[in-house]
Amino acid sequence: MRRMIGGGRDEEAEDSINLTPMLDVVFIMLIFFIVTATFVKEVGLDVAQPPENPPENLDPDKKSIVVKITNRNRIIIAMRDVDERNVRANLERLHAENPEAPVIIQPHDDAETRLITLVMDSANLAGAAVSLAAR
Questions:
Q1: How many other CB atoms are there within 10 angstroms of residue 75's CB atom?
Q2: Which of 12-21, 34-43, 114-123 has the largest mean confidence?
Q3: How many alpha carbons fall within 13 Å on the CB side of residue 115?
Q4: Domain residue ranges of the chain, discontinuous segments joined by +
Q5: Is the pLDDT at 52 greater than 60, yes or no?
Q6: How far is the C-alpha of 75 from the C-alpha of 115, rounded, in Å?
Q7: Which helix (H) or strand (E) holds 90?
């Protein structure tokens, strides 16, 4: 039951809380957080896939210089074992014999990255085009 106090005001009206200012504060905080939020853009690397069709202008007489790197880190060029100090000299000689021939590197999965990089650098210094064969 309601009791009338003094000037005819309800007791229930005095006990209720006005929620309007609280909703205003919540909306202002929401706008503040939306405006100040930083949106993170993920950084990635775009990888260009090679075309599915091989190039049609391949010369069948053009031979490649194949360099194999075994799982025991042996470097094989033209079916011969080559010391890593002599890789550049061998590639320069083979490239001089056939300047159009690209160097194709076939590393084993367990081969050291250092040797793969050494062969790539040596082929670049010899002036040959370099390709890395994947299994």
A1: 24
A2: 114-123
A3: 23
A4: 65-132
A5: yes
A6: 8
A7: helix 87-97
Q: Report pLDDT for 96.
A: 92
Residue in this structure with the two tokens 């009791």, named with its chain if needed = 3
User: What six digits make up the tokens of 15?
Assistant: 């006990």
| Contacting residues for 87 by C-beta, under 8 A, at least 6 apart | 67, 75, 77, 118, 119, 122
Q: Strands, E, within the chain: which ranges?
A: 4-5, 9-10, 65-69, 75-77, 80-82, 103-107, 130-132
As a residue count, the chain comes to 135
Instruction: Note the pLDDT of residue 122.
Output: 92
CA dist 9 and 13 (Å) reads 8
Hunting for tokens 């896939």 — which residue is that?
Answer: 49
CATH of 65-132, one of 3.10.50.40, 3.30.930.10, 3.30.420.270, 3.30.1300.20: 3.30.420.270
Where is pLDDT greater, at 36 or 81?
Answer: 81
pLDDT tens, position by position, 60-104: 556 889 999 999 999 999 889 999 899 999 999 999 998 888 999
CA-based nearest residue to 92, from 117, 114, 119: 119
Predicted model pTM: 0.54
